């Protein structure tokens, strides 16, 4: 069973002006595709070639884990964005954010602060804790909450390939733009 690059849930130009069609073409069409291709080469003919991405992530390490986790993380990331996204969170996730951080503005400041302080490459997540609350978690390289039994609700890619076409080295400008695209409906689906 070969893994396939999932289609974006919107047109490549749909996230402009915040993320350009060129950035999505490179990030999804080339970078994400390379992880899927490498993953397929690694699992072909092994006991992993019939397993799900989640099973591979939870049972491996090293290069195989990296490729599977990057494929999963990127797919999740694309769904966290929407051309109709942005605004303040609503529903269960909105309530959980207010309960944990007081206000959406305070949550956004904490999220951006952790993302800006994150050295190197990785991801920044909003995860659901076992007690039903939410927490901001930064992960390095391809690490992912599903490898640790956590429930991911939202992710933002912090690898430079996510923003250097549109924002060069300015991670802060990228983070401000990303808030205009957050798909709170998808984030709410992940709560349950």
Tally of alpha and pi helices: 8
Helices and strands, in N-to-C order? HHHHHEEEHHH
Task: Write the CATH fold name.
Answer: minor pseudopilin epsh fold
Task: Please write the CATH class name.
Answer: Alpha Beta
Note the overall shape: globular
Which strand order do you get reading across the main beta sheet? Answer: 2-1-3
Rounded mean pLDDT score: 96
Short précis:
The protein has 192 residues and is mainly alpha-helical. The chain has one domain: Iron/manganese superoxide dismutase, C-terminal domain (minor pseudopilin epsh fold, 3-Layer(bab) Sandwich), CATH 3.55.40.20. 48% of the residues lie in helices and 11% in strands.
3D structure, described in words:
There is one protein chain. With 192 residues, the protein is mostly helical. The chain has a single domain (20-191), classed as Iron/manganese superoxide dismutase, C-terminal domain (minor pseudopilin epsh fold). It is built from eight helices and three strands. A three-stranded antiparallel β-sheet has the order 2-1-3, with helices on both faces. Helix 2 crosses helix 3.
Features:
3 strands, 192 residues, 3-stranded antiparallel beta sheet, mainly alpha, minor pseudopilin epsh fold
């Amino acid at each position: 069973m070969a893994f396939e690059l999932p289609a974006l849930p919107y047109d490549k130009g749909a996230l402009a002006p915040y993320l350009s069609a060129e950035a999505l073409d490179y990030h999804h069409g080339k970078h994400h595709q390379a992880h899927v291709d490498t993953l397929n080469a690694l699992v072909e003919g092994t006991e992993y070639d019939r397993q799900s991405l989640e099973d591979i992530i939870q049972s491996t390490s090293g290069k195989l884990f990296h490729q599977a986790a990057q494929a999963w993380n990127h797919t999740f990331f694309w769904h966290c964005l929407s051309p109709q996204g942005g605004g303040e969170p609503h529903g269960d996730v909105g309530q959980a954010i207010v309960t944990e951080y007081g206000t959406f503005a305070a949550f956004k400041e904490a999220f951006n602060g952790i993302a800006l302080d994150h050295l190197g490459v990785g991801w920044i997540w909003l995860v659901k804790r076992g007690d039903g609350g939410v927490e901001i978690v930064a992960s390095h390289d391809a690490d992912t909450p599903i490898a640790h039994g956590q429930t991911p609700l939202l992710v933002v890619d912090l690898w430079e390939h996510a923003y250097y076409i549109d924002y060069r080295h300015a991670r802060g400008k990228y983070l401000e733009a990303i808030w205009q695209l957050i798909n709170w409906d998808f984030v709410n689906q992940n709560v349950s």
